[in-house]
Specification:
The chain has one domain: TIM Barrel. The chain is built from 14 helices and 13 strands.
């Protein structure tokens, strides 16, 4: 499909350099930093002195954008996946730096994008019990992010600083700092925070700032710690690496469940009732969970009518609250027209996941999955919904 306008992508990524966490880390805390040790094939990432095992990251070579899509198409044709060659490529300048990225965005027809981390959305779980380490790393990382990408570079690249609710006072302090520097979207990990719902009134000072600023909260897929919480109860490994999770773990503990439970908590713990201007976006979590959650929320609100309401009673129909406050970026291979019919086009946004291998090498190809929708609906998904969120 050829569309007569530029797109606004809700899910773009960079690859972090080796010094993303160490460049601005205070010397006294350097021993707590996410750091890189070794050389060549022996190069490994550590969080402080502990090996980081969730992702295996090569700083000099990456898997090409769209490689997973190519692999699946090859398998459908009957070829053996191992026969594929040329899957890896040197890390390209546009994956690391904003000026080459702007040139690439022009080539791709992208007007603007929200930009999320690759490695950094997966490190919070390893530091959950050490707030000093966690916030030192996030604050150092966010300073690097502002250096290399900017929070609203040329009003086109909107990089999302990392925030955590583990310590509400430090979360508010860092939120204030990045808002003062122009952040329009912030990144928050799906899942519980320090033994609480993210919508617990304990965190109201944080959400009051979000509500007043009108900044978008991006709930991007990452290591939410659900394998640590639940896998061992089912006889499975507590902390497998991302691509060594079992099919059971992929189904039950990674992706759908953290985002679904996070949205449910925000609704049923009345976050949006207390803070009606808060908007969140589910990014790279797909959309399989949406239909089930809407039905379950409406039914279970009635079932729980005599139980506690931790954030105050929820007025109105929960599914309507979700539709009002939660934007969803579906995977390109999903039935997006069906999502539009059940959820409404107003809260569906296009995300390419570029330049990751499971995303699209050509972001415009996302529109191929929108056939059958009206031109106006296609434009809303490919541009206007996200443009409005970013204030373009």
């Amino acid at each position: 499909m050829t569309l007569p306008y530029a797109f606004v992508d809700a899910d773009n990524h960079y690859y972090e350099p080796r010094d993303a966490f160490t460049r601005h880390m205070p010397a006294a805390l350097r021993h707590l930093a996410v750091n890189v040790r070794g050389e060549g094939e022996r190069e490994r990432i550590f969080i402080g002195d502990e090996p980081f095992t969730f992702l295996r990251h090569n700083y000099d070579h990456v898997v090409r954008p769209g490689a997973l899509r190519e692999m699946l198409r090859t398998m459908k044709k009957g070829a053996v996946v191992g026969e594929q060659t040329g899957v890896d490529e040197p890390t390209q300048p546009e994956y690391l730096h904003r000026d080459p990225r702007l040139v690439k965005m022009d080539e791709q027809g992208i007007e603007a994008c929200m930009l999320f981390a690759t490695l950094a959305v997966c490190v919070e779980h390893a530091m959950r019990d050490n707030p000093l380490q966690l916030y030192a790393n996030f604050e150092a990382f966010n300073r690097w992010l502002d250096d290399d990408w900017g929070y609203a570079h040329h009003n086109r690249i909107f990089a999302a600083p990392l925030l955590s609710l583990v310590d509400v006072d430090r979360a508010c302090k860092e939120l204030d700092r990045v808002l003062a520097l122009g952040a329009r979207v912030v990144s928050l990990r799906p899942g519980p925070a320090a033994g609480r719902s993210p919508a617990d009134p304990h965190y109201d000072a944080f959400w009051a700032r979000i509500n007043e600023a009108g900044v978008l909260v991006g709930l991007h897929i990452g290591e939410s710690g659900y394998n640590q919480l639940y896998s061992t109860a089912w006889g499975e490994e507590a902390n497998p690496s991302s691509h060594r999770q079992s099919a059971f773990q992929w189904t039950c503990f990674y992706g759908d469940r953290p985002i679904m439970e996070t949205v449910a908590s925000m609704v049923l713990h009345n976050l949006f009732g207390r803070f009606p201007n808060v908007r969140v976006a589910s990014v790279e979590n797909g959309s399989l969970w949406v239909s089930y959650l809407l039905s379950a929320l409406d039914k279970m609100k009635g079932m729980g009518r005599n139980g506690p309401w931790p954030g105050g009673y929820v007025a109105g129909r929960p599914s309507d609250i979700v539709r009002q406050h939660v934007y969803v970026s579906p995977y390109h291979e999903e039935d997006i027209p069906a999502l539009v019919r059940s959820y409404g086009v107003e809260r569906v946004v296009f995300g390419s996941d570029y330049p990751h291998p499971e995303g699209l090498a050509v972001p415009a190809q996302f529109a191929e999955g929108l056939r059958g929708l009206t031109d106006g609906d296609v434009r809303r998904i490919m541009r206007d919904n996200t443009a409005a969120l970013l204030g373009l």
